[in-house]
Structures are given as C-alpha cells and as structure tokens.
Amino acid sequence: MNLCIISDLHCKFQLDINEKSDSALFSNMPRRPVSRNPLASILRLIENESLVDKVDYLLCLGDLGDKADEQGIMSGWLGILEIGNKLNVKQIFGIPGNHDVASRSTQPFSFIRSFHESFPTPNVDQNNSFWNKGYSISNTNGFLILLLNSVHDHTNVNNAQIASLKPECIEDIESELETMDLNDNLIKVCILHHHPVKHSNISHYRDGDSLDNGDILIQSLIKYGFNMLIHGHKHQPRFRTENSLPILGAGSFSSYANLEKLPYRPSFHIVEFKDYGVRGNIKTWEFDVKNGWKVNLNEDFPPIIGFGCMPNLENVADRIATLTNKHGVVRFQEVQNEIPEIVNLTPTTLERLGEILNTNYNIVSYPKFPLRPSIIETK
C-alpha cells in the first residue's frame, strides 16, 4: 500500500505574486511557467514519472492556507483534490492546521468546518466525530487511519499558541480501537498537524509548540500496533523512530518559512508499506522554482528512507565485505540483491553501517550513507 503525503501548503492570495513571500503557492497564481508553480509542477511529475494508479491514499496534514486566508484555504484544498484525482487515489484525507483556524475571530472554525463537503473526509459521520470529539477513525480496505485534530482547542489567540491532546480524548480513542479487529494484516496510520515529539532544528531555537501529551499518544499507538505516525507543522522534514514506531515529519509542500539557511526545501513524499506495514520506504521529492519537483541527493533528508528493519549490523557489514573482496567494486544493486533488508534500514542505521565498514573493513560507499550509494569499494 502506498500513501502520498502533503503538508503545509500555506496557499494565499497575493496581489503581486512576484513580491517576496514565504509561500511559493498563491490562489491567483498562473500555471505557467510550470516549474514555478508547485501544483502545476507536481501534476506534470505525476504524469512524467508514471505515478498514476501507484498511490492508494492522499493525506494532507494541514495549513492549507496562510494566516486563515479563506481563498488560500479553498484553493489549497482544491489543489489537493486535483492531485488526488490525477493520482487516481481511492480516497483523500485532510486535517486542519493552526493557519486554517481564524483564532482571532469570534467564530474561529466557521470557515474551515464548512468550506468544502469533502474536508476533512467525504464521510459525514467521521467529520462530525473529528470536529466534535477531536478525532475520527476510518477503517476500510485493510487501511485504518486515525485523524487527530491538534487545533481542536484553538478557540482564541492564547489557546492557538498551544497544541493539546487531552487525556480523555486518548481514552476515547483507545475505547473505540478496542471495539475493532486490529489484526496484523491491517495497516494503521495516525496523522495530525502538530509534532508529538520535540523538533528543534535551529540553534538557540526553543520548540514551544509541540503536542501536549504527545508521549502518551505515542505509547498508545505502539500499544495498538500502529505502523506510522505522520505530522506536519514543522517545515523542516524529519524522520525518526520512537520505540520502533516510525514518525515522519512531512515538512512543507510550498512554504519556505523556517527553511532559510537550512539544508531543506519544500517537499512531498510517497510512503510504501510492505509486509502489511511492518517495513517500507519513503520516497521524497523537493521543489525549487527553477526545476520544479525533483529527487535530490540530500544527506540531511535522503530521497529514499527505509524503515522496519533492525538487523545485526556487524553481520551485514561482514556480508558486504565478502562481496567487495570478491569483486573489488560492487554496485549497490548487487548488494541489495544479496542483502535485501538493507533497503529498509533507517538513515541513522545506514550511517552506523557506513562507520563499521570504514573502520573495520576499510570500505567506503559513493555517495556515502545514508544516501543510497551507486558503488561500494575498498579504499
């Protein structure tokens, strides 16, 4: 099963789209030149890379608009629907972000709750649960998705500074999960806007808007066998695991805010689950106005990230050394054929593997781990 992940569009109306802005997506933006428009560019990419019918679900993790810009929110969601239609997905799921709530208004949720009949889902009962209880659960065709509303309490300016998940909400979620058949063949994913673990990427930057009770949420997801947690909000993409639970910070689809002087660009992802969600890969494309969407060799967030495999690295290194000593230089594809689990190693695990190969066997990879190398050879 494959998921397309898009977050933080920050779409807005701007009278002069050539004026400097944190956002690369405007509600009044022309589709040409294609490379300058993130939406037009991804539609072309889907066609050029034959991604049609290759993705099952499209997940959008909030901040459709920028600063509660209603036209931006509407245009952002219509863009998501267009992407989903181009991919020919089975269903689209969305959640709101803090920029989708007019927290300075006397009716902060009036627009985001009513602007489109398919948001956050096409199901009325699920939507009522999401807005009233702070979550909804969809279970269909071997895919269970938990949608959390981390802006549920953003009813005023002060509350909008905090992302909270009340213990009683977690209790209600667990009670509902208890009534379901959570068999091992069911792929289970949780999505929310705010980050449940600290995410401080900039020196002297204090992370003050992580999700309250995020650690309790993670414990609950592990208890019920979830395969991944995915969040938005932090525009720097990040992947990590917490007690074997993969957590993907999706970054931003079209906002450059908080990316200045950092080695990240706007990005989107396709997550591929194998073995009923036990293992898989995340493929990432990055955007710039010159080239549109493309795969970049970014060491800080590799274009292909594996998860779900924790082998004995000493054993893996020894097997790679045997191949290298036999052939002198080996292509990574040959290593993958002999050691297929290597493609599901996380970036930090691959870095550790590279250190073992270098220190114990005098073997290096080009490019170096955590990127997928072309060749591996003895120095």
What does this structure look like?
This protein is 26% helix and 22% strand. By secondary structure, it is α/β, with parallel strands linked by helices. The strands form four sheets. Strands 1, 2, 3, 12, 13, 14 and 15 form a seven-stranded mixed β-sheet that branches. Strands 4-5-7-9-11-10 form a six-stranded mixed β-sheet. Strands 16-18-17 form a three-stranded antiparallel β-sheet. Strand 4 (135-140) and strand 5 form a beta hairpin. Helix 1 packs parallel to helix 2 and helix 6 crosses helix 8 (347-361).
Percentage of residues in strands: 15-25%
- 3D shape: globular
Determine the N-to-C terminus distance.
Answer: 40 Å
Task: Sketch the major β-sheet.
Answer: 7 strands, mixed
CATH fourth-tier homologous superfamily of the largest domain: Metallo-dependent phosphatases
The total of beta strands comes to 18
CATH structural architecture of the largest domain: 4-Layer Sandwich
Stretches where pLDDT falls below 50 for ≥5 residues? none
Percentage of residues in helical conformation: 25-40%
Look at the structure and give the CATH class of the largest domain. Alpha Beta
- Could you tell me the mean pLDDT? 93
What would you say about this model in short?
The chain is of the alpha/beta class and 379 residues long.
